[in-house]
Design brief:
CATH architecture of the largest domain in chain A: Orthogonal Bundle
Strand content of chain B: under 5%
Oligomer: heterodimer
CATH superfamily of the largest domain in chain A: MetI-like
Structural class of chain A: mainly alpha
Radius of gyration of chain A: 24 Å
Distance between the termini of chain B: 24 Å
Structural class of chain B: mainly alpha
CATH class of the largest domain in chain A: Mainly Alpha
Number of helices of chain A: 14
Number of domains of chain A: 3
Shape of chain B: flat
Low-confidence stretches of chain A: 51-61
Largest sheet of chain B: none
Distance between the termini of chain A: 48 Å
Helix content of chain B: over 70%
CATH superfamily of the largest domain in chain B: MetI-like
Number of strands of chain B: 0
Order of helices and strands of chain B: HHHHHHHHHHHHH
Number of strands of chain A: 0
Radius of gyration of chain B: 28 Å
Chain lengths: 295, 319
């Protein structure tokens, strides 16, 4: 009996490890491949990224691809190429950052104020408004892009960064999550502060914000990853190639720069991975609080 | 407590004097004042966001609705459903709708079942749970653009997957340009979304009253019985939530497809967003407005379903 149970645990662990491997592989492979030299990349993957002009025809190109974990020779040449020789990619990275950082900060600022409004005062009108925000949050980009496109046209900000930043600033996603966590703050805390004669703004600033610090952090991570990843918005609202973020640019990468692509892909995921490793617990808590859609 | 209070006021109303009348009037005035102040305050806090949402989403969406029922911006003749008929008969729109629906039908049940299995797996007594949680969740944070290279290498005609299959005598397939192309995207979708859903399930599993499970243990219930009769009952709202969330996420899968295959993918991968992009490129306001309105209607229907179901299941668990 006991033996059987041990066996069961062992089998489950193996199963979990198998899943873990599958989940980790793509990330790990991207990172490890970024340390290969260009010739090794074209030897391994030449056939996939077809028109690789194998330098002078002498390089050996495998008939089929050859997915490798560990580079033959660890080299930083791709990184040196990306960082020093072709500043183009750095520029795209900068494009991503200059879009995403303002969106995260502005959206959090607007959303925390709004969430406080939805927490402190309830009523039919505000309940309806909140319900409306939830619906808007659930709308896919296919729906919201058309209105965004129209309004950007009217304001004359089409094809500028503002066309993405403004709608991002007012996106209702973080309003929803922050309201949910602010409603967890015990009412007595707010009442006590009110009795002490604090104004609403002081209650917001001195009680609500510090109380939801972890929620703010997790929402910031979620918003960051969402916009760091965005593809639809730049394609439609910011067609100017020079201003497009790295996410879009990576897909148009030239076939004979595959080696570079792995290095760029790695650089591109570094901010996300750092945020994840630092804030995982907050993130898990934030997701768990999402629970249900109703307010 | 409420009843006591009500009784108190009744008593007061009984002995009406001129002074108390004045006091009540004063109180009503104060209350009115406070109410006004509250409204003003809440408007101050909600104002910026509501203005922004109105400007960037609601007002232009109303214009979109308007565009969807007129002939053209230059010739604003009211045509009611003509645009809808035209779009619904459009072959690209049909392909896009069919593919999007097809993808949801395949991906959503898998997303629910697999993420629930992962959550249950992490409930079992296995070592290094938190490490596994981190691993399962990590794809969520990896930008799709970063891993599409790996997907391309694996599922290419001469890719790794075919090399492995060749060992079993299966003929090579160009996965992204075959009827199986949706499966490649489903795998990418699951890889990315399972972790998030798993966290939702883990939180829900945590909320199941422990006593209930203990009683079941004492009474010698089997694991399967416990799962189906206790856990699944308590999980049903979360199952629903994850399902809706997955449906919504499945509409976003264009991103992955675009990064993998560009603007003109294999027919089976032509999604709603591709259709929208093409109408954007042609600046066909009628088509894109109508498609957006249709999509919004479908979403509203789905969300209504979600709320309805949350009502039913929510009551079921509480009662």
């Amino acid at each position: 009996m006991k033996k059987k149970r041990y066996f069961g645990r062992f089998a489950l662990t193996v199963l979990a490890a198998g899943f873990a491997l599958a989940f980790l592989l793509p990330t790990v492979l991207t990172i490890s491949n970024s340390f290969m030299t260009q010739s090794e990349i074209s030897a391994n993957y030449g056939k996939v990224f077809s028109n690789v002009s194998g330098s002078d025809g002498k390089t050996y190109i495998a008939e089929t691809v050859n997915l490798k974990f560990i580079p033959d020779k660890v080299s930083l040449s791709q990184y040196i190429n990306v960082l020093i020789r072709s500043p183009d990619y750095l520029l795209k990275f900068w494009n991503s950052a200059i879009l995403v950082v303002p969106i995260v900060l502005l959206q959090l600022a607007v959303a925390s104020v709004t969430a406080f409004g939805f927490t402190r005062w309830r009523g039919k009108v505000r309940a309806f408004l909140f319900f409306f925000y939830v619906i808007l949050m659930l709308m896919p980009t296919q729906v919201t892009l058309v209105p965004n496109y129209l309004v950007s046209g009217w304001l004359g900000i089409l094809n500028t960064r503002w066309a993405i930043i403004f709608p991002g600033m007012f996106a209702p996603f973080s309003v929803f999550l922050l309201t949910k966590s602010m409603r967890r703050i015990p009412g007595s805390l707010i009442e006590a502060a009110k009795l002490d004669g604090s104004s609403e703004w002081q209650v917001f600033k001195d009680i609500c914000l510090p109380q939801c610090r972890s929620a703010l952090y997790s929402v910031a991570i979620l918003v960051f990853i969402d916009y760091w990843n965005m593809v639809e918005q730049p394609i439609v609202l910011l067609p100017d190639a020079a201003q497009q973020p790295l996410s879009v640019y990576l897909s148009t990468i030239n076939a004979n720069e595959v080696g570079l692509a792995f290095a760029i892909a790695t650089i591109y995921m570094v901010p996300c991975l750092l945020l994840f490793l630092h804030g995982e617990d907050y993130l898990v808590e934030g997701i768990a609080h999402q629970g249900s859609v109703k307010g | 407590m409420k009843i006591g209070k009500a009784g108190g006021t009744k008593k007061k109303n009984g002995e009406k004097t001129a002074a108390s009348k004045q006091r009540t009037a004063r109180r009503a005035w104060d209350q009115g004042n406070e109410r006004l102040r509250d409204t003003l305050c809440s408007m101050g806090f909600l104002g910026p966001s509501v203005t922004g949402v109105a400007l960037f989403f609601i007002v232009p969406f109303l214009v979109v609705v308007y565009y969807s029922v007129i002939r053209s911006p230059i010739n604003p003749e009211f045509v009611f459903l003509d645009n809808f008929k035209a779009v619904l008969q459009n072959t690209s729109f049909r392909t896009a709708a069919k593919n999007t629906a097809m993808f949801s039908v395949i991906a959503v049940p898998l997303a629910v079942v697999l993420s629930l299995s992962l959550a249950l797996l992490l409930e079992c007594r296995i070592p290094c749970k938190s490490l596994f949680r981190t691993f399962f969740l990590s794809p969520m944070m990896v930008p799709v653009a970063s891993v599409v290279l790996i997907w391309q290498v694996v599922f290419h005609y001469r890719g790794t997957f075919n090399v492995i299959l060749a060992n079993f005598g299966v003929e090579a397939v160009d996965w992204l340009n075959s009827p199986y192309c949706l499966m490649v995207i489903v795998i990418l979708f699951l890889w990315k979304n399972l972790g998030y859903n798993m966290i939702l399930f883990m939180a829900a599993l945590n909320n199941i009253p422990k006593e209930l499970l203990e009683v079941a243990d004492v009474e010698g219930a089997s694991a399967a019985h416990k799962f189906f009769n206790i856990k699944l009952r308590y999980l049903s709202p979360t199952v629903l939530f994850v399902a809706i969330l997955s449906i919504i996420n499945s509409f976003k899968v264009f991103r992955e497809i675009y990064l993998l295959t560009g603007n003109y993918p294999y027919d089976g991968l032509y999604m709603m967003q591709h259709f929208m992009n093409n109408t954007f490129n042609n600046l066909d306001y009628q088509k894109m407005s109508t498609a957006a309105v249709l999509m919004a209607l479908v979403m509203v229907a789905l969300i209504a379903l979600l709320f309805k179901a949350e009502d039913i299941f929510g009551k079921d668990v509480e009662g």
